[in-house]
Amino acid sequence: MKITKPLNLALVALAGFTFACGGGDKTSETTSTPAVETPAAPEKEISLEEKYQDDPIYIKGLAKLKTSDCTSCHMVERKIVGPSYADVAAKYEATDENITMLAEKVINGGVGVWGEIPMPPHTALSMEDAKDMVSYVLLLKK
Ligand code: HEC
């Protein structure tokens, strides 16, 4: 009997709180409903990897790129030693001419387009592999 009374009081207090909170929620819910229309927001932050991951050019080029040392100097969206792939893609249209020209540069190496740091030659690469890699790079447009 000694315990029941404070317990009852606590329960009443709890019920009171729940009711008060519930009531409060309802009012704020009704007033803020028109403003809660933002489900489109996450779409904006999609990465280039996610954007193109299902493209056959992406899949093939990336697989070949991973067998070489490209990633030690290039990242998709950030410049490290070399320009980001996104920057290269923004500079060149993916035409046959540009793909051949850039594939030759990857094979032979080169300097002066993006700065003072040279890209070393990759003479072990076939023209076909270099072109697939470059096609992947030029796909990565924002
Ligand atoms: C040791 C660092 C390094 C490695 C490894 C490297 N690159 Fe580069 N890459 C560079 C630099 C530096 C440049 C900028 C050259 C310039 O300014 O002309 C560049 C430029 C490029 C360009 C743009 C060329 C142009 O003329 O605009 C492409 C495409 C490219 N790299 C692809 C690749 C691929 C594919 C690989 C792997 C096979 C690779 N790179 C490996 C450093 C590197």
Structural topology:
Elements: H1 4-32, H2 48-52, H3 56-65, H4 85-91, H5 96-108, H6 127-139
Helix pairs in contact: 3-6, 5-6
Descriptive notes:
It is a single chain. With 142 residues, this protein is mainly alpha-helical. It has two domains: 4-37; 46-139, Orthogonal Bundle (Cytochrome Bc1 Complex, Chain D, domain 2). Helices cover 54% and strands 0% of the residues. The protein contains six helices and no strands. It has helices at residues 4-32, 48-52, 56-65, 85-91, 96-108, 127-139. The radius of gyration is 29 Å and the shape is elongated. The mean pLDDT is 84.
Précis, in short:
With 142 residues, the chain is mainly alpha-helical.
What's the number of helices? 6
- Tell the overall outline: elongated
Specify the CATH architecture of the largest domain: Orthogonal Bundle
Q: What is the CATH homology-level superfamily of the largest domain?
A: Cytochrome c-like domain
The residue-averaged pLDDT reads 84
CATH domain class of the largest domain: Mainly Alpha
Total beta strand runs:
0
Low-confidence stretches: none
Keywords: Electron transport, Heme, Iron, Metal-binding, Signal, Transport
GO molecular function: electron transfer activity; heme binding; iron ion binding
Organism: Algoriphagus aquimarinus
Pfam family, one: Cytochrom_C
What are its keywords?
2 domains, binds heme C, single chain, 6 helices, Cytochrome Bc1 Complex, Chain D, domain 2, about 140 residues, Cyt_c_ID, heme, mainly alpha
